[in-house]
């Protein structure tokens, strides 16, 4: 479980995060939802330690991360897996070498055979068992995201962070990536935090949703609750999509149709 | 200016405070040594051989006094090559080739979040990415300068003898006259200092690239120009201090 307490962050005097407090629960797909420029990615970067918050604290399973000693921060960082928006694969390495890299660096006690087995397992888990020898430039955007996931889970991470995992992907591939993240979260009981502004993803895999608006947390709850939320900014954000508007209309007409819709998507039916 | 220098010092400190395992550092240094050193042999060879040849021909063109022995040409080629041309010109060539490569490579890694990926994994990115590049440069620049010295003197010999401006015997006599071994030490000290400046400045410019592809290009250009200016300033400072 990750606890974020009263995080504030400014850039050149402009506040971006204004006292955000929230909890990301273990074994769930926690989603940071919000429009562009609301501070989602900045919050994510503060949580993983790529940025230092001005005020506030972040705790990983009871261990304070912010302002702690470098050894403690390193220890926590080694439990973190992250899928970047652009995948951030190392260009000079093959797909298999990318997945093996964190194992080489973080688990020197593993033998080369053990590492190879783990790489094969992770690539198979994301459905890329035949792409190990390819270079990142030779694979598609969706495959890059899957390699990113394989690299993140290779060292058996406890926390998985995904920064807009669906950006630049077609709807079908997006659904596959979403489902993969969801399955991995439950399979390994990982605390997953996903930054997104994609309502399809929220309906697909969101279990605990936190809505940010202009650097503040305005709402949190489940995907079943989100369509009936009373926060005007959240309603404006959600119902700006004609698809969600239509789904809501069906929900209202059929009295609970939306719940069935969510259940269907949970079972892999997609949107 | 002062702020940039302070950032550069902190950047170097960060590189050596939490280093990765020795085996990782060693393998990375060897990889970088191949990129910096082995891949630069051709360009350094061509440039140094022709500089030696041109130096020889131009000195011969200017030495018209019959009272000055022809062996002086060989002597001057050797002195100019060892003291100045081999270390400085080689380093300027390497600033263009290696400096832009370091800045461009690190800049691209920065804007594509590869540096962030390393940091999130708990890896000290400066230690992993920059330290091996600087160590490889410190190792390879002196070797390339030694190669440049040999090829420049050889280039001078070939140019002098093939164009008929002097005999082989005069040239060899010239390059053996009044040899001062310290000049070699001085040239290698210069090579090490220039290696540090080129690799350090280029890595600094590349590592702190922000923005997109345009900024990566600007970082590469900035790395080369700043490295060359630093080489020339250091060249003067070392000559004033050590000669």
Automatic annotation (TrEMBL), chain A:
- Domain of life (superkingdom): Bacteria
Gene Ontology MF, one: ATP binding
Pfam families referenced in this protein's UniProt entry, alphabetically: ABC_tran
Q: Which Gene3D superfamilies match?
A: P-loop containing nucleotide triphosphate hydrolases
PROSITE patterns the UniProt entry points to: ABC_TRANSPORTER_1 (PS00211), ABC_TRANSPORTER_2 (PS50893)
Q: Where is the ABC transporter domain?
A: 2-239
Keyword annotations from UniProtKB, A to Z: ATP-binding, Nucleotide-binding, Transport
Q: What is this protein called?
A: Phospholipid/cholesterol/gamma-HCH transport system ATP-binding protein
Q: Origin organism of this chain?
A: Hymenobacter artigasi
Automatic annotation (TrEMBL), chain B:
Q: Which InterPro entries match?
A: Permease_MalE
Signal peptide residue numbers: none
Transmembrane residues, as ranges? 34-61, 134-159, 179-204, 216-242
A Pfam family per the record: MlaE
Please provide the record's keywords in A-Z order: Membrane, Transmembrane, Transmembrane helix
Q: What is this protein called?
A: ABC transporter permease
């Amino acid at each position: 479980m990750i606890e974020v307490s009263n995080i504030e962050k400014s850039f050149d005097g402009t506040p971006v995060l204004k006292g955000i407090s929230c909890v990301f629960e273990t074994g769930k797909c926690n989603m940071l939802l919000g429009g562009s420029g609301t501070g989602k990615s900045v919050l994510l970067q503060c949580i993983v330690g790529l940025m230092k918050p001005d005020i506030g604290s972040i705790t990983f399973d009871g261990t304070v991360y912010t302002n702690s000693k470098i050894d403690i921060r390193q220890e926590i960082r080694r439990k973190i897996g992250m899928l970047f928006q652009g995948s951030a694969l190392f260009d000079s390495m093959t797909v298999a070498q990318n997945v093996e890299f964190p194992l080489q660096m973080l688990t020197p006690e593993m033998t080369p055979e053990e590492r190879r087995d783990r790489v094969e397992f992770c690539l198979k888990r994301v459905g890329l068992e035949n792409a190990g020898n390819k270079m990142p430039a030779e694979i598609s955007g969706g495959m890059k995201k899957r390699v990113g996931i394989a690299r993140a889970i290779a060292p058996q991470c406890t926390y998985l962070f995904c920064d807009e995992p669906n950006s630049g992907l077609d709807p079908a591939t997006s659904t596959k990536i979403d489902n993969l993240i969801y399955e991995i979260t439950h399979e390994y009981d990982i605390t997953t935090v996903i930054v997104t502004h994609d309502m399809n993803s929220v309906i697909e895999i969101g279990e605990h949703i936190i809505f940010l608006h202009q650097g503040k947390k305005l709402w949190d709850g489940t995907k079943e609750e989100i369509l009936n939320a009373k926060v005007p900014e959240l309603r404006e954000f959600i119902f700006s999509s004609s698809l969600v508007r239509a789904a809501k209309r069906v929900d209202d007409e059929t009295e609970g149709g939306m719940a069935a819709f969510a259940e269907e998507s949970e079972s892999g039916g997609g949107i | 200016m002062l702020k940039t220098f302070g950032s550069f010092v902190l950047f170097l400190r960060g590189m050596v405070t939490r280093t990765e395992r020795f085996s990782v550092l060693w393998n990375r240094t060897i990889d970088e040594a191949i990129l910096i050193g082995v891949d630069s042999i051709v360009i350094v060879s061509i440039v140094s051989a022709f500089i030696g040849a041109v130096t020889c021909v131009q000195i011969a063109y200017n030495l018209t006094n019959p009272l000055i022995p022809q062996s002086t040409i060989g002597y001057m080629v050797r002195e100019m090559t060892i003291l100045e041309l081999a270390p400085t010109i080689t380093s300027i060539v390497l600033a263009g080739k290696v400096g832009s490569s370091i800045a461009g490579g690190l800049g691209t890694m920065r804007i594509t979040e590869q540096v962030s990926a390393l940091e999130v994994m708990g890896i000290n990115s400066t230690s992993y990415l920059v330290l091996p590049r600087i160590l490889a440069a410190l190792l390879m620049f002196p070797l390339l300068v030694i190669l440049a010295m040999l090829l420049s003197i050889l280039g001078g010999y070939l140019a002098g003898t093939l164009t008929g401006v002097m005999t082989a015997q005069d040239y060899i006599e010239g390059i053996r006259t009044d040899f001062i071994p310290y000049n070699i030490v001085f040239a290698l000290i210069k090579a090490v200092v220039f290696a540090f400046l080129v690799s350090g400045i280029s890595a600094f410019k590349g590592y702190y690239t922000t923005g997109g592809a345009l900024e990566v290009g600007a970082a590469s250009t900035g790395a080369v120009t700043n490295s060359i200016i630093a080489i020339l300033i250091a060249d003067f400072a070392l000559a004033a201090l050590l000669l």
